[in-house]
């Protein structure tokens, strides 16, 4: 029994290494897992027989001697369905083992809000379509979703989705029901999932303490502390967008408060600062400001500097609090940050205690807008990775 | 070997339970540790023979049946030396197993600063005195120190001690040297240690996610995330006093920035707000304001409200970021908080997302000014608790 438990854990760990790295030699697996090569070979054979990995001769390593076989995930044959409810779009994707997006469907979403039924209907339709067009031998091993709001862990209940006006909407349960699953789809906050994805596969690789700021209309956050996502007592931590940085003179925020970080650096703040019309909105409008600033337009540059100053106040506070190794700017902040970096750096130099900023790096997201989707996929893969041979029960029946 | 390792871990866990709880029945130990009662008895016998615990018949439990023996720490016989360098005082104490302060020495410290030599001389003198007057059969098992600044983990180097003007001063090494020890005294930041003490023995007992604000001249912080102190990449996290809450109109801060939480709610801010003379300072002056406010003095009350508003901005930000179960006000904030609580609560209601504040509690410190000293003692006990029978080598030779 103990033996069986150890074997299961080893299989899971090996599969996780292959899933996260994409391609690992047997020798590297033996070293990282502290197991001998014959054990690695036996574990790999089991995973191969289950259709989860395959072994290949490595491409020329330039070294003499017999090369170690390379283990790769069966990306095309083992996948999850990942869903992303963002402010401006609904996305569904088929994401293969190894975290590769194989196929996707995208729908624009009106800002005016949408009811649960309509959102779930669109996503479930996409999901069935993606599942139905997958190769016949491919297996769906899980489902996961990202949502731009506060999510109750466990059942995917949206406690608060400000831009849609959702309060206590059973999103995970409804999506699961509509997909014909026996239980709720696991759901995570978009910035939490983006942070995990960036740490596992993106700019945060190798960092144990990391701040991820996710710009959408507002600003969400995912904070990694000691290698783990900061969740707090109820799973509602990391709301850095509602850190008040300008309490007495701040712009009103969608949350009902005033001077929140997202009110000062969000989409509306930037467009207003750049003097754009009040009825303009969306990612394209925002990118236009960034492009104009790049061309030297003074109002656009000034707008980015103003946003950068507030962003710097917020980031400096976070560095004082978390002493992170890296701060990552994702979502729309990936576009905004380069033109605002000088102001951010100045604020950090002025406001952060020298000892706490000695080694911090500032980077833009490596995964871009896919970070949330890749993070959602990770929710779908979690059962398979916990028990690779017990878990390969199709999450959805074959689509045809 | 594995057996020996398990035994050592069980001994350490049992001693830790007794150390933290003060008095635990064998039955409760068996239940909490998941071991049978004969194993608990054997472990307890070993710890008793080593002079670390003793067993007693419980006081009348009011229940029928044979009562379970109660295990207590040998508080008088097993102690550490704990040191505390605060802004206004230097303290040393003999702290017995179980976290009980047995004896202490205290010296006022001038605000003007003090050099390393002088501070270490006073503390080492106190330490020798406390050690020398301990009962002849008592054993000193460790040493630990608290310091009001940023400390490098491992060697007790003070990286930044703003009120003394210390930068990179080898406090831990010098104190160890002066006490005749072979290695540096482990040192922690005062608010970090206070947080750990409050979580283990104070208002934070049972909370896994906790914010501790420690008011001295400024405001330090200790943040517990998932049961562990938030340390960050270098051990310099939790600097919530330097979270900027008033970036453009703020008071200058000792760190060189402006509008930091500690600049808006620290001792000077409160005394200024209450219209006290600029040359007045210290805990007594501050308590006078609190007392006057209690008597209905309008200027003093208004000062507390003003500080409470800024304190609320800071605490609201922390709740949005950490979704903690409890926020604890310690150090001088223990005195200030009751007269400022309404403003703090109003800010939390206005600035924190409802979902994140559903269950948070606000409390004052249970250990008061002893929190840092008790936390420093914990550093001294850590080796004994890790290996109770291997670790009982006197940290200091007998004093006589």
UniProtKB/TrEMBL annotation, chains A, B:
Signal peptide: none annotated. It comes from Micromonospora fulviviridis. InterPro entries: ATPase_NBD, ROK, WH-like_DNA-bd_sf, WH_DNA-bd_sf. Pfam families: ROK. Coiled coil: none annotated. It comes from the Bacteria. Belongs to the ROK (NagC/XylR) family. PANTHER family: BIFUNCTIONAL UDP-N-ACETYLGLUCOSAMINE 2-EPIMERASE_N-ACETYLMANNOSAMINE KINASE, ROK (REPRESSOR, ORF, KINASE) FAMILY. This is ROK family transcriptional regulator.
